[in-house]
Amino acid sequence: MGNRMDLGSADGSDRPQHNRLQREGRPLGRRDALTAPVIQFHATSPVACPYMAGRAERKLIVDLDGTGAAFVYDDLSRAGFRRSHRFAYRPACRGCAACVPVRIAVKRFDDCRWTRRVRNANRDLSARLVAPRATAEQFELFWAYQQFRHGDSEMATMSYCDYRSMIEESPVHTEIAEFRDKTGRLLAASLIDLLDDGISAVYSFFDPHQRRRSLGSWGILWLVDQCRRQRDPYLYLGYWIADSPKMAYKARFPALERLTVAGWTEMPSPIARR
Can you tell me the mean pLDDT for 88-110? Predict the structure, then answer.
């Protein structure tokens, strides 16, 4: 059974004003409580958790179809939701709160020794943002990444049609960041959503054999720089799971914030966490 929830406020003060709204032709005026989107949440049935062995995963799902989907998604992102295809979701597992939404506060971000090392290792790469259109070149890289890093996951069995659906089925402003070496070879890519207060890194994949480059971390560092170029305050990284090797790496990044019952709060520095 779904639950209905009004994400609006009488004066619109819950939404940061952002110059990208003007660039995209989206209205900047205050939202009236009577016209604010009313959305419906659906809970999924429990399935085996892909990150925590022996636990069950359950999600809240929101359909993003219809007018105002971008506005709804902006608010849901601040509430810890992520996007997949035309849906936003958030873990709602009984008895487990291991998945913690995290984001980088761009203004507070300062490079440290390891981030400078990653930047130096990838000085030869070029980057560009392209429209969310699937290509055979992307899929070849995606498939190699899945087989090497996540061979036991469902994504490792995705066909080109599945990949194309993941890339192109988006009701919001979505782009792909492509990273290439001097020969033009595609080494990494990040599917991103543009929000009214930043960028959401939806999914990233890279050449798994280029280990010295730390391409996954490089992609995040480039997105931090892109947020600065766009004057965006936040880079949303999805969920941090302390006990999952696949997700724990996010805690290394400086200026990290996590979503708690009290709202977004600054996480301790990486040194303090260690």
Answer: 94
Give the count of beta carbons closer than 10 Å to the beta carbon of residue 198: 28
Residue 274 has pLDDT above 90, yes or no: no
Asked if 20 and 230 count as a contact pair (C-beta separation under 8 A), the reply is yes
| Direct distance between the N- and C-terminal alpha carbons of the chain, in angstroms, rounded to an integer | 42
Q: Which residues contact 229 (CB under 8 A, 6 or more apart)?
A: none
Question: At residue 215, what are phi and psi to the nearest 5 degrees?
Answer: -65, -30
Beta strand ranges found along 99-255 (DSSP E) = 100-105, 126-130, 174-180, 186-195, 198-206, 234-240
- In this prediction, residue 11 carries a pLDDT of 35
Question: Residue 270: what pLDDT?
Answer: 57
What domains, with CATH codes, occur in the chain? 3-98 (no CATH), 102-273 (3.40.630.30)
